Amino acid sequence: MSKIVTAHENKSQPLLGNFIKANIRILQTVSILIGMIILLSILSPYFLQVRNLLNVVRQISLIAIIGMGVTMCIITTGIDLSSGSVLALAGVIAASFGQGQHPLIVAILLGLAAGAVAGFINGSISALGGIPPFIATLGMMTAARGLALIYSDGRPITGLSEAFEFIGGGYILGIPVPIYIMVLVAVISHILLKHTKFGKYVYAIGGNQQAAIVSGINVKKYLIMVYTYAGTLAALSGIILAARLSAGQPTAGVSYELDAIASAVIGGTSQAGGIGTIPGTIIGALIMGVLNNGLVLLNVSPYLQMVLKGVVIVVAVLLDKKR
User: Where does residue 42 rank: exposed (0-12), middle (13-18), buried (19+ CB within 10 A)?
Assistant: First the structure.
């Protein structure tokens, strides 16, 4: 009997070791998150209140949704700097059709279409034009922001219907609607990356683009698909934010792309490409959200908060380089 137990233990130890080795990045991130939660629960009696925790998750839902698209871009060794501006553009377009004169689905689809087109242009310029993603998406960041201001005449678009506002401000069973949307997007994105040909090719392109081309993968096609998906998710966040603010704000989403990138990198997505997960990005977004919330609860100066967030981003990049 003891021999059977020993054999079982010997067999389980390599399995556990392999699991830890395969998931070391996400396990490190989870450890950091747990440590932050324990520390803040000690420093502030309000942190672990259900209302506060729900608020944290609702706050990070937008960044997490954008981050899922950005994660795919980074896995392919790219980047998307336009997501904050695309968010604003989609928000004002959706808001202009979400005032009750048109079916809600029309407003949503037009907002998503704006993001998909922006993402398609990003991908096409980069993949077909040979322009580095950094430059292509930087150009879109400026252009999309300008279009949002032109479309809205530089003013918030208000008067949204109750159905539209429910997307960002409603509750189902006591849980904010944006959290449900984030979870749904996470499930879809995870399946796309881990259980489809699309995901397999995305990792292959990031691992070695030249080898992917030699193996017959249509790299340009899949890069365009990745950026189109990222643009669509940025647009979805824009719709949710407009619904939550009860207005399409042409100035919304400033620096959101940086928070999304930080969430992806903190969550274990490698800037070198070929490595990254959706759960990791969500945990990275939670770390950013918990940090923001904790600093507010501790009455830390807003200016110092910006400094600390910058330090966290730099440290995350340095750690990524050492992995």
Answer: exposed
Distances from the Cα of 117 to the Cα of 112, 120, 234, angstroms: 9, 5, 12
User: Degrees (nearest 5) of the Cα angle 250, 171, 233?
Assistant: 40
Domains of the chain, each with CATH number or no CATH: 49-322 (1.10.3470)
- What lies within 8 Å, CB to CB, of 201 at 6+ separation is 212, 217, 222
> What are the tens digits of pLDDT across the range 111-140?
999 999 999 999 999 999 999 999 999 999
Task: Indicate the residue type of 142.
Answer: T
Q: For 153-218, where are the alpha helices, taking DSSP H only?
A: 162-169, 177-194, 197-207, 209-214
Residues in the chain: 323
Taking the CA atoms of residue 239, residue 244, residue 250 and residue 256 in that order, the dihedral angle to the nearest 10 degrees is -80
Alpha carbon distance 194, 199 (integer Å): 6
The answer to pTM > 0.85 is: yes
**Which residue has 């904010």 as its token pair?**
176
Give the containing element (helix H, strand E) for 175. Answer: strand 175-176
pLDDT in tens, 66-102: 999 999 999 999 999 999 999 999 999 999 999 989 9
Tens digits of residue pLDDT in 82-92: 999 999 999 99
